[in-house]
Amino acid sequence: MSTPTTTPAERPTFPIGRQCPYRPSADYAAFRAEGPLSRVRLYDGREAWLVTGHTEARALLADRRLSINARADGFPALSAEMAELANTGYTDVLIGVDPPVHTRQRAMLIPSFSVRRMNALRPAIQDIVDQRIDAMVAAGPPADLVAEFALPVPSMAVCVLLGVPYEDRVAFAGPARELFDADPDRAAAAMAALTDYFGRLIAAKEREPGTGLLDDLIADQVREGRLSRDELILYAMLMLIAGQDTTANVISLGSLALLEHPDQFAKLRADPALVTGAVEEIMRYVSLVEAISRVALADIEIAGYRIRAGEGVLIGAAAANFTTALVPTPEEFDVTRSPRHHLGFGFGIHQCIGQNLARIELELTFRTLTQRLPGLRLAVPAEEVRSNTTGPMERLTALLVTW
After folding, report:
1. What are the GO MF terms of this UniProt record (predicted)?
2. At how many degrees (to 10) do helices 355-372 and 229-260 cross?
3. What is the mean pLDDT of residues 301-323?
């Protein structure tokens, strides 16, 4: 069995910061040089395995001996905020439960996220993208692409999907941010506010059904006794928050990557047919999620290493996306390729259920931006672009552009 070459006192801390907001740290090369698995130290002093090999990452994401239960002993939270999130109840559906509970929950939602159903939303999403660009053009440059485009596009799209009034965002936007607060009282208050909002929304839909995924789940699952209202509230909360936050970050970071690589932007502008495949390369290159947390339920031997039961495992999606096992030149940003086996949406039974919707949003976003704003460019030096890392994800706080 292989063993780490560092002693416990020498373990590097994780997560590691990015030198560039739209691509993983070059420091991952040192981890990969040690082997596909390394030992790292977390914010609270505990240790965990970090998996940087692409083959090993996919294998472990598909391994039922790893648990996603954030309340389990040894589960490797990446920050105090993420550790507290498990105590709010937010992770009690899909993203924090194992089979058979996960199997039952996911089966209820899979038909609603089919490629066919998501494609039916294309006209509505295209309208949203066009409206936001119209608003930017009308206001004139410069514009903050994060606030005026990247955030509202997925927010409006997921509201259409769920049947949530977009004008209600005042009621849920603030609590959605505070849910990730490390202060237990603030996180609990945010959870209570979101629970109250969705409880009232679902009650209103039961009285007067509308169109949207929540209405379908009420009719097909709640009224048939297969889904409780409490679970539906958590479903709604998860889909609203996860469905807009992750896509918004990929739009803003992907836009920055394209603007910093004008030759790649020019390729998409010249050939819109490239965009569908380019979305996969943007997902790979941006690698929004640094690591996916799991805990071992049993001993696992992989690539000459032994992960013992109870040990935390961090599937380094960002690091694995930059290996030659996925693409021959991982350091290059090349929109002419389509690396479909990237880990931007995860892998295995917990692979992102909303990936079909996200792909459509990203495709329409980058195709429309490059065609309608062919002169799009940064309005400030790249080093002045502000970013931060919340939990396992990188995000831009603003992106000033002109055209």
Report:
1. heme binding; iron ion binding; monooxygenase activity; oxidoreductase activity, acting on paired donors, with incorporation or reduction of molecular oxygen
2. 30
3. 97
Percent of the chain with pLDDT over 70: 96
Cis-peptide into 111, omega within 30 deg: no
The reply to whether 203 falls in a domain is yes
Token code pair at residue 86: 């498990």
Q: Provide the 3-class DSSP secondary structure of residue 108.
A: helix
Asked whether residue 2 is assigned to any structural domain, the reply reads no
- 400-402 sheet: strands from edge to edge: 143-144, 400-402, 377-378
Domain that holds residue 117: 8-402
Strands (E), 10-139: 37-41, 47-51, 66-67
User: How far is the C-alpha of 272 from the C-alpha of 139, rounded, in Å?
Assistant: 26
Task: Give residue 395's pLDDT.
Answer: 85
**Contacts for 319 with CB less than 8 Å, ≥ 6 apart:** 24, 28, 31, 32, 50, 52
**In a domain? residue 28:** yes
Which band of pLDDT confidence, cut at 50, 70 and 90, is reported for residue 111? Answer: confident
Has residue 17 been placed in a domain?
yes
Count how many domains the chain has: 1
Which pLDDT belongs to residue 240?
86
Q: Residue 11: pLDDT band by 50, 70, 90 thresholds?
A: confident
- Residues 155 and 243: their CA atoms lie apart, in Å, by 8
CATH number at residue 212: 1.10.630.10
